[in-house]
Amino acid sequence: MGRQVGSRRLGGYILNEGKLSIRLRRSLFRLRAERAAMYGLITRLTAASGRRNELALMLLDPAANRRGCHHYVVALGTDGPDSLWVTEIWISEEAHRAWVAEIRDSEVLKPALALIATWGDTIITRPLAGIGL
Fold this sequence. Notes:
The protein has 4 helices and 6 strands, in the order ββαβαββααβ. By secondary structure, it is an alpha+beta fold.
C-alpha cells in the first residue's frame, strides 16, 4: 500500500491534503460523544485569614477518595491573599454527587471545610477533551 501524493501520517492517521481522514473524524466524533457527559466545576474559595496554604493542602487530602474524578486542581488565587480556585472534572454529574454525599457522610474533609471563610461562585462546565483527559 503506497502513500498518496500530498498525504502524511499523524499518529496512525493519514491526513490527505490538509483534510482529516474518515478514520480520524470518526475517532473525534466518538471522543466528543464519550466526553459529552463529563461534568466540570470551577469554584472560588476564600480561606480563613492567613490559612490559605493550610486549606489548599487539606483539600488535596488523598483520604478524600475521588472515584470518578479525572482532574482535581487547587490553585492559589492572584486576586487576594486568601483566595483559592478549585477546578474539577468528573466522569459525570452523578459521580460528583456521589462523592459529595460520601464526603458528607464520612466527614473526611470536615477540617478543611472549617477553614473556608466564603464560597464564591461555582461555574459548571461540560469538558470535551484536553491533555490528560
